[in-house]
Amino acid sequence: MLAYSKQLIRSSSSVGANYRAACRAKSTSDFINKLKIVEEEADASIYFLELIEELDSSYKKNLTPLIKEGNELLSMIVASINTSKKRNFPGTKIYNRQFKI
Asked: Residue 7 needs a FRET pair 20 to 30 A away by CA distance; which of 30, 40, 53, 59 works?
């Protein structure tokens, strides 16, 4: 479980670092690309939280709200990506793995 905890630290800290980089993007395309990395790392963070929860159910009480918040943040990130794509490439239909806009 220690290895999963270390991966969680890596992926969750990457979310913050890449979001910060996205805020300093040089173009809309650069912003979208950086947010896609944020999306991937946020999804990985949720995965490791769920994995830890499955391995040791004693963490469930503490991890359930974190997983919920992670999913809410992921939804906001995806919405930002899709909004940016619509503004940058008007008239295109945007589809995501989990969300249809």
From this structure: 30
Q: CB-based burial of residue 71 (10 Å sphere; 0-12 exposed, 13-18 middle, 19+ buried)?
A: middle
H/E stretch holding 99: none
Instruction: Look up residue 79 and give its two tokens.
Output: 């919405």
Residue 95 bridge partners (DSSP): 100
Rounded CA separation 57/31 (Å)? 38
Residue 11 DSSP class: H
Whether 26 maps to a domain, the answer reads: yes
Considering only CA atoms, give the Rg of the chain. Answer: 15
The pLDDT tens digits of the residues spanning 11-57 come to 999 999 999 999 999 999 999 999 999 999 999 999 999 999 999 99
Q: pTM for the full model?
A: 0.84
Domain ranges, residue 61:
2-88
